[in-house]
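ok here's Peptide chain release factor domain-containing protein, seq below lol
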Amino acid sequence: MPPSSMILLVLVSLPTITIRIASTQRRGEREENRLNCSHVSSSWATPSRPRRLFDEAANLIKELNKSLDRYELTQLLSGPYDKEGAVISITAGAGGTDAQDWADMLLRMYVRWGEKQRYKTRVIEKSPGEEAGIKSATVEVEVRYAYGYLSGEKGTHRIVRQSPFNAKGLRQTSFSGVEVMPLLPEESMDVEIPEEDLEIKERSQLANKIRALSRLKAKLLVIAEEQRASEIKQIRGDAVKAEWGATNTELCIPSVQTS
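and the structure came out like this:
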């Protein structure tokens, strides 16, 4: 491509970026300033260095597009708690060992997603399965908008596959439930829970109890927001049913024919 054509291609692309920048409100001015840098660069361009100008402008366009994509996504996450971190609770449902293995697969998926995004992600609770996998696990993702990103994961997740735990290699359907709650600072949760309304089934350390109460309070705040209620006096269920007829997502792995 001739140097003049490369420069023309860049200049033609710039108006599209400008239009997208104009549509953003709070960050528009900053993005326009960055875009203006590319126009300034063109003033010192000479025939001996058009490729350098093209590379600089092309990289700037990529950066602007990524920045605008992130900004547009944050505009969609406008819920009252979308800007907060997230707590993911995974529980194996119907399906025995396969369900526990499926729950472990989901746990690894969420942890690797957080690590890939370079988010502060940690497993704060993990109950191993009897033969394989896990019975339950809790993951904290400490980054802005984590709850907005992950709230759509709440529900029942199903997998259909040739079971590695079945001696006959039969196809097995298994379920796991996923709860997602905002990670809120304690001082922001003005929720009173009477001791008589709490049922603690297992003994645990004080730190674990505090975390559990914090997650419970966050869940109550989310429920209150969804129902537009000013008070919640009792907790009645609201747990995800990981069973037939309550599927949120599913994964089907075809059987492998061996000769």
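fwiw The chain has two domains: 3-76, 85-252. kinda neat tbh
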